[in-house]
Design a protein that fits this description.
- This protein has a domain of about 150 residues: Aldolase class I (TIM Barrel, Alpha-Beta Barrel).
- About 40% of the residues lie in helices and about 15% in strands.
- The strands form two sheets. Strands 5-4-3-2-1-9 form a six-stranded parallel beta sheet. Strands 6-7-8 form a three-stranded parallel beta sheet.
- Strand 4, helix 5 and strand 5 form a beta-alpha-beta unit.
- InterPro entries: Aldlse_KDPG_KHG, Aldolase_TIM, KDPG/KHG_AS_2.
- Belongs to the KHG/KDPG aldolase family.
Length: about 210
């Protein structure tokens, strides 16, 4: 079975260009998180399984329907299933996880498997996947690596994360081989908690304004 690359989420993420990676340790920040993302028209959030509140956060953020909520750092089939049951609309993994990919394809759920080498990318394409996470981007050569890999994998696009920040993100999103960039630099719980979201809102607005200028 092959992935359905016509899924609306692929188009929406390519339009948005920013995929915030968010690790929840305090559920009281989620209302402010949603408010800031909606105000800045970044309606995506990837909640990572790096805390034991991941499922609670996915469920709460998915309830309003204002955001397209996904699960990140998904390493097992059990995590993928529980994320989807709690409202996740897409799945991001740090590596090629066959069980997770098969589950997502079977249910027409967009899945972004983590890749770093030509072998990884080839494995992803064998499932029909044409958009892969490239992680950790800075360690594995960043834009130079993506440009080189795009030679043989001319029909694949990349969603890089790792080492991307407010200083270099524009170089990435201006590259034709890249659908969007991910990272906690886009919005984070610590920035929200600092001053009830003022700093977080300012950071996100600056990123969005840079993209539109």
């Amino acid at each position: 079975m092959l992935a359905n690359m016509e899924h609306e989420i692929y188009r929406q993420i390519e339009e948005t260009k920013l995929l915030p990676l968010y690790t929840a340790t305090d559920l009281s920040c989620l209302d402010r998180l949603e408010e800031i993302l909606v105000r800045n028209e970044v309606r995506f959030i990837e909640v990572t399984f790096r805390s034991n509140l991941a499922l609670d956060a996915i469920k709460k953020l998915a309830q309003s329907g204002e955001l397209i909520v996904g699960a990140g750092t998904v390493r097992t089939l059990a995590e993928a299933k529980s994320a989807v049951e709690n409202g996740a609309k897409f799945i991001v993994s740090p590596a090629i996880v066959p069980d997770v990919i098969a589950y997502c394809i079977e249910r027409d759920i967009p899945v972004f498997p983590g890749t770093a080498t030509p072998g990884d990318i080839q494995r992803a394409t064998e499932y029909g996947i044409k958009v892969v996470k490239f992680f950790p981007a800075d360690i594995y050569g960043g834009l130079k690596a993506i440009n080189a890999l795009s030679g043989p994998f001319y029909d694949v696009k990349f969603l890089p994360t790792g080492g991307i920040n407010e200083e270099n993100f524009m170089e990435y999103i201006q590259n034709d081989h890249i659908v969007a960039v991910g990272g906690s630099f886009i919005i984070s719980e610590s920035a929200i908690k600092k001053d009830d979201g003022k700093t977080a809102d300012k950071i996100l607005k600056t990123l969005v304004d840079k993209m539109r200028s």
